[in-house]
Amino acid sequence: MGSFSTGSSETQISTKEFMEQMNFQLAQAYVEKFLQTVRDKCFDKCITKPGSSVSGTESSCISRCMDRYFEATRIVSRAFNASR
User: Fold this and answer.
1) Domain for residue 48, yes or no?
2) H or E element in which residue 14 lies
3) Is 80 exceeded by the pLDDT of residue 9?
4) How many domains does one find in the chain?
C-alpha cells in the first residue's frame, strides 16, 4: 500500500487513510453547500417582505420547505444506493 508524505514533516499516512480523510472533507463540504442552498431557496420562497422578525406563516413555510428538500434528498440517496 502506498503512503502520502505531508511535505517536510516525517509524518506519513496510508493512501487509504488519506482517501478517508478526503472523503470526509468532501462530505462535509457537500452538506454545508446543501444546507446553504436549501436556506437560500426556502428564504427566497417564504420571506416575501424581509423585516425585523419572521411571521408564523413565514416560519411554517420555511420549515415545510426545508422538510421537502430533506425528504427529496433521502429519496434520491436511497435510489442511488439501491442502484449500486
Assistant:
1) yes
2) strand 12-14
3) no
4) 1
d(CA 76, CA 60): 24
Q: Tell me how far apart the alpha carbons of residues 80 and 59 are, in angstroms, rounded to a whole number.
A: 32
Q: Give me the CATH number covering residue 68.
A: 1.10.287.810
Q: Is the pTM of this model over 0.70?
A: no
Let me know: does 31 contact 22? Beta carbons within 8 Å: no
Q: Is the pLDDT of residue 2 over 80?
A: no
Distances (CA, A) of 84 to 74, 76, 77, 79, 81: 16, 13, 11, 9, 5
Q: Residue 10, Cβ neighbours under 10 Å: how many?
A: 6
In a domain, 2, yes or no: no
Interval 39-46 mean pLDDT: 94
